[in-house]
Automatic annotation (TrEMBL):
This is Uncharacterized protein. It comes from the Eukaryota. It comes from Ovis ammon polii x Ovis aries.
Length: 246
């Protein structure tokens, strides 16, 4: 009983974080429904949907990163959360990429015009930065003992290997993920989402302790904005150039 009392505060913090992530998913879903009803122009529609998708992805990843740094009840708990929220994003963010590499790939394959691609890239950039500052404001409320505003202003460098290895890891992760996107297009939607979620979880497991295995330039900017400010060239090469080449 004493052990359970000791675990209860940790469980409360975890439940609070999970509740925040599920709440933002529901709120972004409502915002998408409203935008589809109210917006008529295709460019405005594309911008808003991409903005909402990127905001949701970055918001949840910020909170997942915070949860992963806590002492888990089971070592596979963070991976289970990554898989679950990858499923959630796959089900709710249909029609958006939330990743500049995905937009560039569609443009190169002729599936998207340059104007639409530019609008989506701008929306992703704004969504990533907005999510970062919203998380800073939210953490300042101190809803859990892990929510501290100073966290959002510190550089928590995830790169634990030398630069060439970091470049290779992020490029390979991006190559594998986007290759899977192309090859899974003919697979049934429900199965495809599970396959991609499992792949994301595996990539994070394999490369997470080395570079974070982000393979998404806007997500990397949102998560490590302060690090880009302090070591821009290194982070530009690892988190922007490498995934794009991959």
């Amino acid at each position: 009983m004493t052990a359970l009392r000791g675990l209860w505060p940790e469980m409360q913090d975890t439940c609070t974080s999970l509740g925040l992530m599920l709440s933002i998913v529901l709120f972004m879903g409502l915002a998408r429904v409203v935008s589809r009803q109210q917006l008529n122009g295709p460019m405005a529609h594309a911008f808003v949907l991409e903005f909402l998708a990127t905001f949701q992805l970055c918001f949840c990843t910020h909170e997942l990163q915070l949860l992963s740094e806590q002492e888990p009840l089971h070592p596979t708990w963070p991976l289970m959360l990554i898989y679950f929220f990858s499923l959630v994003h796959g089900l709710t963010l249909v029609g958006t990429s939330s990743n500049p590499c995905g937009v560039m790939m569609q443009m190169m394959l002729g599936g998207m015009s340059a104007e639409t691609g530019a609008i989506r890239l701008l929306a992703q950039l704004i969504g990533a930065l907005c999510s970062r500052y919203c998380m800073g404001a939210l953490w300042s409320l101190g809803l859990t003992k892990y929510h501290v505003s100073e966290r959002s202003f510190a550089c928590r460098n995830p790169i634990q290997v030398d630069l060439p290895k970091a470049v290779i890891i992020e490029a390979v992760c991006s190559f594998i993920f986007h290759s899977a996107l192309l090859h899974f297009q003919e697979v049934r939607t429900k199965l495809r989402i599970h396959l991609l979620s499992a792949l994301i979880t595996f990539l994070v497991y394999a490369g997470g302790s080395l570079t974070g295995a982000i393979f998404n330039p806007t997500l990397a900017l949102s998560l490590h904005f302060k690090c880009f400010d302090e070591a821009f060239l290194q982070f530009f090469i690892v988190y922007w150039l490498s995934p794009s080449l991959g």
